Amino acid sequence: MPDREPDFTWLPDLALRSLGGAVIWANDETFAEKENLINPGPAGFRPATFGHKGQVYDGWETRRRREPGHDEAIVRLGLPGVVRGIVVDTGWFKGNYPPEVSVEALEIQGYPPADQIAAEPGWQTLVGRVKVYGDTRNPFEVTDGNRWTHVRLSIYPDGGVARLRVHGEGKPDLHPLSAGPVDLAALESGGLVLDCSNRFYSSPHNIIFPGLAQVMGDGWETARRRDDGNDWVLLRLGSPGRIRLAEIDTSYFVGNSPAAASLTGVRGDGAHVTLLPRTDLLPDTRHRFPIEDAGVVEKVRLDIYPDGGLARLRLYGEPA
Question: Which of 170, 199, 234 finishes a domain?
Answer without folding.
Answer: 170
